[in-house]
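Bumping my old thread because nobody answered last time. Still need a sequence for this structure:
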């Protein structure tokens, strides 16, 4: 789908024939928007490149993981980093936070953490003789949730409204969360002692799940050389700010997705719902997240339109953590990732111009 064959997916602006005596003003507005988007896309690519290089000073040898984190940020999603201890889960979230000049909070999830510690609480003020709201850890542009599965289900559920509606309701009063707002949560999938598995409703709020994995030998040697004498985070300086990220998010929202691409997204999620190897398929929210992420990937690639490859490249990271394998698939040793790869191979990819 690369190269010239991909162009028809972007040829979305209406064209007037030479015989049309009265140009439609909406066509002219569309053309102007297309021109403006070109400049916006160039700015986005430049900013993303600065942030990527900044994060990769700390997370070495994992460009795909860093790119996925940036896709989620630009698509207004939340990221779940799931991997074994010591591979840099928290370091990834911290380096991303330090690269953006915005408010950052870190919440260490523990069994005794209360929902009010996350959302905030109303406290009686003796001076004013009234209750005043004291914001919790969720009130920040970028929230780092360390080991989210160590908190009780009651505390985990406090995040549901925050992550989906970007607001917090305490004692009947709703407080909006400022944009950009992103939760980067980490969890250890192999240590089950003292943990509470994330419920399906919670996992569905995360736009993508990534696993960092062990570094290659060269990257690990570089880490030993650079990270033993000093903390690499100490040298990181912000390369963008919250206001600029908001503009980039707006740029991503304007990226065009052709009807054929949208139908492809729905076909993939529908296939997960009808597969006999899955007991729980992808939700409509998953379809929305997949398309938003594909728009962000397209913009990061310098395009103002989505191609099917954007969807295919992100499908596993956006959909796999939302699915549940059937008993038969589990007994056969097939996980959700294996099933999803089979569905990706089976669902027809739309051709340009259709």
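Sorry it took so long. Here it is:
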């Amino acid at each position: 789908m690369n190269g010239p064959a991909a162009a028809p997916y972007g040829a979305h602006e209406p064209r007037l024939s030479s015989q049309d005596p009265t140009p439609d003003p909406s066509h002219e507005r569309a053309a102007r928007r297309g021109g403006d988007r070109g400049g916006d896309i160039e700015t986005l690519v430049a900013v993303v490149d600065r942030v990527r290089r900044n994060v990769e000073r700390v997370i070495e040898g994992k460009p795909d993981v860093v790119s996925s984190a940036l896709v989620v940020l630009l698509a207004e999603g939340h990221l779940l980093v799931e991997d074994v201890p010591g591979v840099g889960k928290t370091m990834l979230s911290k380096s991303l936070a330090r690269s953006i000049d915005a408010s950052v909070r870190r919440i260490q999830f523990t069994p005794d953490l209360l929902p009010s510690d996350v959302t905030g609480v109303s406290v009686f003020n003796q001076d004013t003789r009234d209750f005043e709201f004291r914001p919790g850890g969720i009130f920040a542009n970028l929230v780092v949730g360390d080991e989210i599965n160590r908190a009780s289900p009651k505390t985990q559920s406090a995040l549901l409204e925050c992550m989906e509606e970007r607001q917090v309701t305490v004692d009947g009063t709703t407080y909006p969360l400022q944009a950009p707002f992103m939760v980067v949560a980490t969890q250890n999938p192999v240590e089950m002692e003292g943990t509470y598995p994330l419920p399906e409703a919670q996992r569905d709020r995360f736009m993508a799940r990534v696993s960092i994995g062990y570094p290659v030998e060269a990257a690990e040697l570089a880490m030993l050389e650079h990270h033993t004498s000093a903390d690499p985070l100490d040298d990181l300086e912000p390369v963008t700010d919250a206001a600029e990220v908001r503009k980039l998010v707006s740029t991503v929202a304007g990226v065009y997705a052709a009807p054929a691409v949208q139908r492809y997204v729905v076909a993939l999620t529908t296939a997960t719902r009808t597969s006999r190897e899955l007991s729980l398929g992808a939700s409509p929210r998953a379809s929305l997240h997949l398309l938003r992420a594909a728009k962000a990937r397209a913009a990061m690639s310098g395009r103002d339109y989505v191609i099917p490859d954007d969807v295919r490249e992100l499908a596993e990271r956006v959909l796999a953590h939302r699915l549940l394998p059937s008993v038969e698939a589990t007994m056969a040793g097939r996980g959700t990732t294996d099933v999803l790869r089979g569905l990706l191979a089976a669902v027809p990819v739309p051709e340009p111009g259709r």
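The first helix runs from residue 25 to 56. Let me know if any region looks off to you.
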